[in-house]
Amino acid sequence: MSIEIVVEAPGAHRIARHTPREPGPGEALVAVHAVGICGSDREVYQGNRPKEYVRYPLTPGHEWSGTVWRVGAGVPGSLVGRKVVGEGFRNCQVCDRCHAGETTLCTAGYEETGFTLPGAMAATLTLPARLLHVLPEEADLTAAALLEPAACVAAAALKAGARPGERVAVVGTGTLGMFAVQFLKAVSPVDLLVVGTRNDREALSRRFGATDFRTKDEELPDDLDLVIETAGSVSAARTAAALLRRGGRLVLTGIPAPGAEGLDPTGLVVRQLEVHTVFGAPPDAWAHAVRVFAAGLLNPLPLITHELPLSGFSSAIDLVGAADPKVGKVLLHP
User: What is the 3-state secondary structure (H, E, C) of 183-195?
Assistant: First the structure.
């Protein structure tokens, strides 16, 4: 029997029988291979996500990979049988921000797969075919399930505009941080520093291309060209900004809790820092992530530590919230 996870309300979920929804015009029906769980999925389950960014009851799952089973009218039949991943933001396509390619800034309001619309913690997912990104035939679908967080980091990498020979750094050693290391390594920096809170991520950071690793309590440089921040801790933004030379570039991707230490506006102005932020991934970032993955420059597999059946949702949620350094990315398989 095909199943799906339904979160009825914060703290309450059930395993339900899944019935695929046939694709309508412009849609595709995808057989889900794997779906990742991240902190935002745990927020949905616990009820900590802002109410305008979730709608109960809900089938979660915004990080996923799969294979197209069927397509609706107006969708090329050549998509059937192709391995795919898909964007989560359901942009309107007609506002000025959408026309500019900035779909995560769509003025029509927030809608996203797995948060306000049915997600991939089910045997199948039906969604607009325009959101799909086709993978190479030889792509590893288990690894590809992590391309959603990779796309968010790709957005940061594109905004960062890293150039060969620069001195760069990543603040944060979670999934986003390890992807940021790989994206920056691909543009051949002369120095690539990773700043974390524990030494247990040093080996993996160096495996992905870091030339140096330090904890935030150690002596740190203050003359780097570019820093991508991924930690989202209360002090991460300040730590990241302090690493930069005058005129350096900072990209913030982490979302700290309210009350985090803010960036000093005087320091930003006097040091002439260039600051960018990222929330989600527009189509060009998705295309960049898929391209880098297909080229073999992005390897998500070492980040995966646990794979469970979909029925193991409760255990997966507990793993994600355990704060255990041995727990990396957790995947569910329908």
Answer: HHHCCCCCEEEEE
- How does pLDDT run across 138-156, given as a tens digit for each residue? 999 999 999 999 999 999 9
Is 289 a member of any domain?
no
Q: What is the CATH number of the domain that holds 250?
A: 3.40.50.720
| 224-246 pLDDT per residue, tens | 999 999 999 999 999 999 999 99
Q: Is the bond preceding residue 164 a cis peptide, omega within 30 degrees?
A: no
- CA dist 252 → 61, 148, 199, 268 (Å): 24, 17, 22, 14
Query: 171-187 burial by CB neighbour count: b if 16+ within 10 A, else e?
Result: bbbbbbbbbbbbbbbeb
- Are residues 222 and 132 part of one domain? no
Give the separation between CA 204 and CA 207, rounded to whole angstroms: 5
Q: What are phi and psi of 299, to 5 degrees?
A: -120, 95
Under a CB-based contact definition with an 8 Å cutoff, are residues 91 and 106 in contact? yes
Helix (H) or strand (E) holding 142: helix 141-144
Task: Tell me, yes or no, whether 310 and 329 share the same domain.
Answer: yes
CA distance 222 to 245: 6
254 φ/ψ sector (left φ>0, alpha ψ -120 to 50, else beta) = beta
* Contact (CB, 8 A) for 169 and 224: yes
pTM metric for this prediction: 0.94
The runs of H, that is alpha helices, within 186-320 are: 202-207, 236-242, 265-270, 283-294, 313-320
User: First-to-last CA distance in the chain?
Assistant: 11
Domain count, the chain: 2
pLDDT at 255 over 90: no
- Could you give the CA distance from residue 312 to residue 334 in angstroms, rounded to a whole number? 10
34/120 Cα distance (integer angstroms): 8
Distance of alpha carbon 135 from alpha carbon 144, whole angstroms: 9
Strand pairing report for 12-17 and 3-9 = antiparallel
177 and 70 Cβ atoms separated by less than 8 Å: no
Do 328 and 263 belong together in one domain? no
